[in-house]
Amino acid sequence: MALKIGPIEVDPPVVLAPMAGVTNAAFRTLCRSYGAGLYVSEMVSARALIQGNATTRRMVQFGADENVRSLQLYAVDPRVVGEAVRVMVEEVGVDHIDLNMGCPSPKVTRRGGGAALPVHRVLLGSIVSSAVRSAGAVPVTVKMRKGVDDTILTYLDAGRTAEDSGAAAVTLHARTAEQLYSGRADWPAIAELKAAVTSIPVLGNGDIWAAEHALDMLAQTGCDGVVIGRGCLGKPWLFRDLADAFAGRPVQGPPTLGEVADVMRRHARLLVDAFNGSEPMAVRDFRKHVGWYLTGYPAGGVRRRSLGMVSSLTELDDLLGELDPDAVLPPDAHRLPRGHLQGPKPVSVPDGWLDTADDPSPPDELFVTGG
Questions:
Q1: What is the CATH number of the domain that holds 233?
Q2: Would you call 223 a catalytic residue per the annotation?
Q3: Is the domain of 131 the same as that of 40?
Q4: DSSP E strand boundaries for 105-224
Q5: Is residue 264 in a domain?
Q6: Residue 142 to residue 167: CA distance in whole angstroms
Q7: 227 vs 141: CA distance, rounded Å
Q8: Model pTM score
Q9: Is residue 94 part of a domain?
Q10: Beta bridge partners of 3
Q11: Domain range for residue 300?
């Protein structure tokens, strides 16, 4: 079953969620090697892009294997997002733009961005419309959360506004910003959004830890596709499992620890390429992935800590060589949650933000290059 996002066919209907500090070109290449789908970059600031921020421009890297260049932008100003989209489409050759309207990070929401932005419905529509105009034939999508908290739910209005403003699809992470990553994702909310937004695809995100969860989400909500976030951390072969599940093929069992070690080596080497040959930078970036890769495996606390402090590829190879290559995951361990688990936490928004929902004015903005 293929998913159509504008002119882009996504088969199977699987999208890699943008994750700050994770979904760089190296990780996207690794995940893509396991199966087809749409693989989105980590979030970058539209304002930082058009003002030439060097760090932000370095984040806009695409591998030679990326036939569809997919970029997520953070923006709170229609004029700024329009210019950033124009530059990315005309100069970089981006094929898909996703707008972040769901990030719960305080550094984003306290500026009126991310999950705080949908409170301001008129501004949201202006931002989407501006991006769509500048993008031309390139599809623009919107990723959001249910709302600020359980008393300020914005997803139905935001979904309809995005649809009316020309978005090619909307994604709902079925948690509020206050929840962060705690509790269970509210899949019935995805079904509600699907019923409210009828002319474009609706994608679901939240608590897909294994391939069967993706099929369950589609069956329970009627959504048109799934967006995979934390479930693929340390588990890029989840995209292979998803391809098999959607094709009706048997899903393979989890890899042995030796096979995981080989993937870890490959990931680290891809990061060296992504960091322009800088092994120290690549290895430092890789450290955060170690715990995710070893989730559920009998690796030992001392060895886990040592791997989490590696300083070179040689050291990484040596330590991985000490693992039992035949070790396997205990039953059901492949369904264990990964990544962030924090929350709930009160949401920071600008003063008066919740009292001025119809104000079309963009808030004051500083550089935000992650989140």
A1: 3.20.20.70
A2: no
A3: yes
A4: 140-145, 147-149, 152-153, 169-173, 202-205
A5: yes
A6: 7
A7: 13
A8: 0.95
A9: yes
A10: 10
A11: 257-328
